[in-house]
Amino acid sequence: MEHPDYNKIFSEEEKEILQEIMNIAFGNATADLAGVIDIYVVLSVPKIQVISIGTLPDYLKDELNASGKTSIIDQRFWGDFNGSGFLVLPTGSGEELISLIEEKSIDNYRTKPKDLLERETLTEIGNILIGACVGKMSELLNTFVTYSPPRVITETDYKCDNLVEKFDPSQPAIVMKTIFNFKQKDINGFLLILTNQESIGWLRKSLNEFMDSYE
Predict the structure, then answer these.
(1) How many C-beta neighbours within 10 Å does residue 144 have?
(2) 35 φψ region: left (φ > 0), alpha (ψ -120 to 50), beta (else)
(3) In sequence order, what DSSP letters do the residues of 39-84 get, joined into one string?
(4) Which domain holds residue 208?
(5) What phi and psi values does residue 160 have, to the nearest 5 degrees?
(6) Which of 62, 93, 97, 146 has its CA 20 to 30 A from that of 203?
(7) Helix (H, G, I), strand (E, B) or coil at 125
(8) How many angstroms separate the CA atoms of 201 and 35, rounded?
(9) 2 pLDDT exceeds 60?
């Protein structure tokens, strides 16, 4: 849920330009994916919400429950812009997507154990989508970030609460989400970029500088 006081953190103009930057960034991510492994993705218009960090676990649980059984690719990033990217896909998507990657991959790809193959497939797709999206946002806002290695988390070992244990639960978090569909395999999922209060001041300043550069 959105906290009423958080509606004032960004002006309507700032929200509009952030949404446009997210459109460009998500589009860049899907173009990178298509260029590397010939997987084409159809995106929804990004949705931006500002919520309290304390409500984030419930938000994620609601999103994950709504999408059924899930696998999550989680990747942290640091810099002026810092947070986490989450690629959420139905359980079994790795197996479905393997056939789209095999021809582009190394010779022993088919000889690996099935579960390892699925995790590598999900990791590769998550790394491309999250990295390209966050990287394009950073480029447009004149900064750069560093990344942790992506990790695949199953629904059985995923604990939403551990995302917020180091933060004041009343602090705001910015959630940027787009729903997508893999055309070749009819798989739906969503990509979520999360950043917290540490980045809000920098983000507002950078959004206004971005707007000023086009006036």
Answers:
(1) 12
(2) alpha
(3) --EEEPPPEEEEEEGGGHHHHHHHHHHHT-SEEEEEEEEEESS-EE
(4) 4-212
(5) -60, -35
(6) 62
(7) helix
(8) 35
(9) no
What CATH number is attached to the domain comprising 72?
A: 3.40.1550.10
Backbone angles phi, psi at 187, to 5 degrees: -110, 125
Number of domain units in the chain: 1
Neighbour-count burial of 121, counting CB atoms closer than 10 A to its CB (0-12 exposed, 13-18 middle, 19+ buried) = buried
Measured distance CA(56)–CA(113) in Å, rounded: 35
Tell me: the pLDDT tens digits for 145-189? 999 999 887 655 455 666 666 667 777 778 888 887 777 767 777
CA separation for the pair 215, 211 (Å, rounded): 7
Rounded Cα distance, 32 and 171, in Å: 34
Q: What angle do CA 138, 128, 140 make, to 5 degrees?
A: 15
Spatial neighbors of 116 by CB under 8 A, at least 6 apart, are none
**Cα separation of the two ends of the chain:** 34
Share above pLDDT 70 across residues of the chain, in percent, rounded to a whole number: 75
C-alpha distance from residue 64 to each of 16, 58, 88 (Å):
27, 10, 8
CB 144 within 8 A of CB 167: no
